[in-house]
Amino acid sequence: MRRYFLVFLLFTFVIPHLCWSSQTKIKPEELPPVFKKWLEEEVVYIISSKEKDIFLQLETDRERQIFIDAFWRIRDPNPSTPENEFKTEHYQRIAYANKMFGRDSPTIGWRTEMGRIYIILGEANSIEKYENETEVRPTIIWFYQGKIEMGLPNSFNVVFFRQEEFSDWEIYSPIVHGPYKLLRFFADDRINIEAAYKQLYKINPSIAKISMSLIPNDQTSLTSPSMASDILISRIFETPKKVEDEYAEKLLKYKDIIEVEYTANYIGNDNFVQTIQNDLGLFLVHYLIEPKKLSIELYEDSYHTTLEISGQVTNLEGKTIYQFDKSLPLQFNKNQFDQIKSKLFSYQDAFPMVEGSYKFHLLMKNKVSREFTSFEKQILIPSTAKFQMSPLLLAHSKKQSPYVGQIKPFKVKDQQMYISPKRDFSKEENLHVYFELYGVPEGTRTDGKIKVTISKSDEVIQEQVREGTQWPQDDKFLISFPLFDMSPANYGIRASVQNRDGTEVLFEQQFFYISHRLSLPRPFISTGLLAPADNAVYDYILGGQHFNKGQVQTAKTLLERAYRKEPINFKYALGYAQILFQFQRHQEVLDILTPFVLGEDPQHSAYNLIGRSYQILGQYAQAIESFQAYLAFFGTNLKVLNDLGECHFQLGNREDALVAWKKSLELDPNQKEIQEKVNTLEGIKE
User: Fold this and answer.
1) How many H-runs (helices) and E-runs (strands) does the chain carry?
2) Average pLDDT for 298-303
3) d(Cα 117, Cα 128) in Å, to the nearest integer?
4) 3-state secondary structure of 129
């Protein structure tokens, strides 16, 4: 079930970060007519406030159409079929409402109260009409049954009445109107509800009962109509709008950075993120994401898909500090697929980060189904100089890891931890809690103690204490609690550091619950085996992060260390050369990168930095040769064309300089300085 895969880390020093700024909202009347009609007529009774708010923030008709596709898709009761039964039924109800409920009214059918209820609830199970009663106002009762899936009572009535002979039908409310409103000849006296009910009961007992409550067998007094009836009416209006509208928020956020075919296919997920320090002091961000579903394609007796995972870490101001892209191919034979098809899928991974506070964005795309899911979390990489405690990591099981010295997602000490993002446990499991202390004062370690307590409300259920003399030397704690004697309920777990006198110095707490089920479904996990902690890749990644934070000297130290460990690795060589270029050590850039462009398989991306170094050193012929090699492989590039033109100009090759600069202006005509150079050269030529 577990597949290991290659990790492809992409790092550049100048990373364009994804801009998810707030959008400007327009007014409905400013929409193009077709979208205004859709919003204010076709879906007005079923669209949630969040969906409407986001729809009004979309900027183009293409985005609005994608939103509409997603709007119907999220409501499709059977996505595996070509027809969207909900959408078909909805438009049929609108057509019926327009035909039947606007005939004797100046209001179009869908706008009438009857039309509104019909569009939301559909056809009633039965209808009673009292339109020709002498003493009772025209009244129609729609009886519904079997709407429990909408969060409504198993049976209820919706009552319509006319206050005047030719007025529109209104929805009757026992609280707002009262039984006296259904009587033709009764003083408008809200206080005397009992008298109105008794008079109505003499005329028509059925109407009288419904006048006090719309819900059969609802217990009411003769002086107080049912509050439950008004709650029912409110629920009828709000229930269609209660959908998982997270997709709308994600569509708005990702509409500019994912392909069109994905945008309408957002699926939810559960996720979890935790920062853990390894044995060498390296902080890694461990994360997992469990999409609500995983679509897999059958091809030639093999079940497969490919997941693309993109991560981005920004500082709190929105600048990108680190980003990565990975590809995860999944393939199963029939036996494997049969074992996992009923399970959730959990993707787990980890990456190193330097000290600081960040926002972590993760995007996962399924190439087979064109579905995507995502999450955003705030993460903190703590300073070990300050006395701190990590958040609590709760696991439902653990086992000895065979990967000694290796980094694995959610591997702590020598134990592989198994995490549920829902923090759910069964009585058959143990609760394993892991946490770390940083910057522990010597006196605290000697005289203090750790107390870990499980409680329900204010009642302590279990407690374990570790005296300072029992602390592990690395200040990393893994403590287990059996759960078999604990009843299903919600619990809290609290870990605290206390002085000798019991004064609490630090604490962290978390909540979890024990399920009624003896066995909980656990996902199959796909994860990768990361490189050992002393591998050059960590120096390279952390060096890039320091560079993006403006900590150039620290970045140089780490990137040089990565290069010295593996000097034949082009990625590390290019990273180190880029920062040497920042320090104006151009000859060293040439010494490092030149070997990578020699031979039968040159690294063409090195030609740009080589050319720029030659240019700064005044070796224009070599720079021209490098720039031309770069352009021959990658095609046009604005900066390279401008530098190429400058090198030709410095050597007196005015015709060649003109060719390069004119090509640059074709790509971007708004280059005033380049245009002036071209004008000057053409003037000399004339």
Assistant:
1) 21, 25
2) 85
3) 16
4) strand
Mean pLDDT of the chain: 90
pLDDT in tens, 158-171: 999 998 877 889 99
pLDDT in tens, 481-496: 999 999 999 999 999 9
Q: How does DSSP classify residue 39?
A: I
Any residues with CB less than 8 A from the CB of 63 and at least 6 apart, and which?
255
- State the amino acid at position 423 in one-letter form: R
- Kindly state the DSSP code that residue 446 receives in the 8-state scheme: H
pLDDT tens for 624-679 read 999 999 999 998 899 999 999 999 999 999 999 999 999 999 999 999 999 999 99
CA angle 399, 403, 408 (to 5 degrees): 80
- 335 and 386 in a single domain? The answer is yes
Residues 497-518 have a mean pLDDT of 93
d(CA 32, CA 38): 10
Structural domain total, the chain: 3
**Cβ(366)–Cβ(484) below 8 Å:** no
Residues facing residue 463 across a β-bridge = 453
The residues facing 145 across adjacent strands are 155
Do 583 and 637 sit in the same domain of this protein? yes
- Same-domain pairing of 464 and 351: yes
Q: SS3 of 118, please?
A: helix
Quickly count: other Cβ atoms within 10 Å of residue 642's Cβ: 21
CB half-sphere exposure, 668, CA atoms < 13 A: 11
- Is the Cβ–Cβ distance between 664 and 641 less than 8 Å? yes
- Indicate the pairing of strand 489-498 with strand 411-412: unpaired
Residue 84 lies in a domain: no
Instruction: Return left, alpha or beta for 353; rule: phi > 0 is left, psi -120 to 50 is alpha, else beta.
Output: beta
Whether 577 and 589 have beta carbons less than 8 Å apart is answered as yes
Cα separation, 418 vs 170, in Å, equals 57
Give residue 627's identity as a one-letter amino acid code: F
- How far is residue 381's CA from residue 315's CA, in Å, rounded to a whole number? 12
DSSP 323-334: EEEEEEEEEE-H
